[in-house]
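Quarterly update from the structural biology core.
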Amino acid sequence: MLFVKTYTCLEKEGQFTVVKKGFNFPAFFFLFFWAFCEDLNLKGIISLLIAFFLFLINPDLIFLLQILFGFMGNDWVVSKWEKKGFTSTMEIRAKNKQQAIQEVLKKYKGVLGKYIAIQS
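Predicted structure, tokenized:
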């Protein structure tokens, strides 16, 4: 299977979500805008302030912040879900997020009752 990605499945009380592992391109390109959209408000505010000061020093330094967000973005999303009481249960290999959700639903079909996928 070409271009297969790994997703972390997080679940809590009949609900689950999946988060891609690896580099996060939206976080890389949109920085604090992405953080606010993902409900990572503290990281958004801090990154906005850091980006402002880096811009004053040398605008090229913002690239370092982009690299940090790209590599850490998905880990921050997983941490957000874990703070909400979700636990990481398995890793799924799939081509995209929708296929990962379908794989999780197949694994739990008839075992744990009705599961609801949460889109993040």
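DSSP finds four helices and four strands in the chain.
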